[in-house]
Specification:
With 83 residues, the protein is mostly beta strands. The chain is 8% helix and 34% strand. The protein is built from 1 helix and 5 strands. The protein has a 5-stranded antiparallel sheet with strand order 4-3-2-1-5, with helices on one face. A hairpin with a 2-residue loop joins β2 and β3. The chain is globular. The two termini are 24 Å apart. Bound molecules: zinc ion. The site of zinc ion has 7 residues, from loops.
Length: 83
Amino acid sequence: MSDEIRMQDIVEMRKKHPCGSSIWTVTRIGADIKMKCSGCGRVVMLDRQEFLRRRKRVLTPGPFSPEITLGLMPHTTKENGDD
Ligand SMILES: [Zn+2]
């Protein structure tokens, strides 16, 4: 698992939200990561390290968008040949 964070990533967190859901959608990437709970719609902000620490896995990666991943990706090679 890399430390990649993308807009619209669907992620599972280690701890369940009080609403019972552990699935979140990344809605903003900056100095802090903003994500929205899929269960109750609550939006929370975590700093990047905290986010990565709490993230269990990425269920569905968001679309590739280098300008909004803030250079987290060291190269621009696409993984699946088709464009
Ligand atoms: Zn919730």
